[in-house]
């Protein structure tokens, strides 16, 4: 598909494009105080296809320069919306090389093509933009006749914590017999929550369960998905340059990775509580469950700000990375109801 500027062409990615996709991810930096770069392993095309319900990846080609200069992707997930099962599309990997930022006339065609791929395939579409990326927020929030409508849904934060110490909380490792019923009961209470606990890459042995009096109060799983997704530390700036020399772990914060290294992290995924558990109890469980990640430097937990567990991190020492969450008009639903949002960091 040629765009109006004949120099550019939008094509659907194929397995042979994985190296181009990898270069796109490694070329985009935000130059923040702690400059973390999200990557998709050595075979990004495969990593997209191994998403919960597949993905579509589009590449923007500069025909004159004979190279890939931009990309857009949507990963599909089976989720709950208003208590009903539906299919969601998460827009990720929306990238344009810095030297092409002034060529924004290609964006309308790119979004139009992406909409064609998503329309009829998803009931709701959503995206996240880093909180400090103000230029992209302004672009999406200002009405444009040629761009889809973006509707703000609040903050989404990835909390980075240090693996905790074991406490007196009675935790079990492994898939308890009642675990499926626990998730089936409480996941539908959230919007955008997965349909069940069967996330790719997890086995029963990865789950951690808090049970008292025969009743499950909380559960989660440790997911190490470096094969598909990881974070690379590009560097520190400003006052944060002194971080590598500080004993952050002794202060209760995660270990500080060195510049030029991939962060040794695991995700605390499928985190879910019985609503009867209060904020203190949630913080206690997160701290205790993270102890099973000892040997890793960082544990990641992702939560929308209207998730009841969000406030538990006021009681936990952490490093936050926040984004603005949007629903996107790609021909599906735009409105979320009053239910809290559940978006697992492994699906971001």
Give the helices and strands, then pairings.
Layout: E1 8-12, H1 18-27, E2 34-39, H2 44-49, E3 55-62, E4 67-81, E5 84-96, H3 106-118, E6 124-130, H4 134-141, E7 150-161, E8 171-173, H5 179-186, E9 207-212, E10 215-223, E11 230-236, E12 265-273, H6 279-289, E13 298-304, E14 319-328
Parallel strand pairs: 5-6, 12-13
Antiparallel strand pairs: 1-3, 2-11, 3-4, 4-5, 6-14, 7-13, 7-14, 8-9, 9-10, 10-12
Summed up:
By secondary structure, this protein is of the alpha+beta class. The protein has 6 helices and 14 strands.
What features would you describe in this structure?
Strand 5 (84-96), helix 3 and strand 6 form a beta-alpha-beta unit. Helices cover 16% and strands 34% of the residues. The two termini are 28 Å apart. By secondary structure, it is an alpha+beta fold. The strands form two sheets. Strands 1-3-4-5-6-14-7-13-12-10-9-8 form a twelve-stranded mixed beta sheet, sandwiched between helices.
User: Radius of gyration, rounded?
Assistant: 20 Å
Strand order of the largest sheet: 1-3-4-5-6-14-7-13-12-10-9-8
The number of strands is 14
Question: Major beta sheet, specifics?
Answer: 12 strands, mixed
Low-confidence stretches: none
Q: Which word captures the global form?
A: globular
Rounded average pLDDT = 89
Q: Give the helix tally.
A: 6
